[in-house]
Amino acid sequence: MFSSHRQFSPQQRRVGMIVATVPVMCGTGFVLYKRLVLGQPQRLAEPGKPGPRPDEAFHLSRQSTKP
């Protein structure tokens, strides 16, 4: 049905690039706005503290078995 070897026109490539980059630019701009205008501190990882385990990171997908 769909071919993976399809050639896109230059206009289609431009639109695809815009669709892919606009959300990234909006998100980055929002984070910078919160930091520079609203004065919120930059989020930093604590040294020596491990990040969440994969099974804890997606706690909404299954019930917790911890008491």
Describe this structure in words.
The chain is mainly α. Helix content is 46%, strand content 0%. The protein is built from 2 helices and no strands. It is flat. The mean pLDDT is 81. The chain crosses the membrane at residues 15-33.
SSE order and pairing:
Elements: H1 10-36, H2 54-57
Keywords: Membrane, Transmembrane, Transmembrane helix
Region (Disordered): 43-67
Transmembrane segments: 15-33
Brief account:
The protein is mainly alpha-helical and about 70 residues long.
Feature tags:
67 residues; mainly alpha; flat; membrane; transmembrane; transmembrane helix
As a percent range, the share of helical residues equals 40-55%
Sheet with the most strands, sense and barrel status: none
Q: Name the shape in a single word.
A: flat
**What is the helix tally?**
2
User: What low-confidence regions span 5 or more consecutive residues with pLDDT below 50?
Assistant: none
The topology string of helices and strands comes to HH
Q: What's the rounded overall pLDDT mean?
A: 81
Number of folding domains?
1
**Rg to the nearest angstrom?**
21 Å
Task: Count every beta strand, where a strand is a DSSP E run of 2 or more residues.
Answer: 0
Straight-line distance between termini: 51 Å
Indicate the structural class.
Answer: mainly alpha
Beta-strand content: under 5%
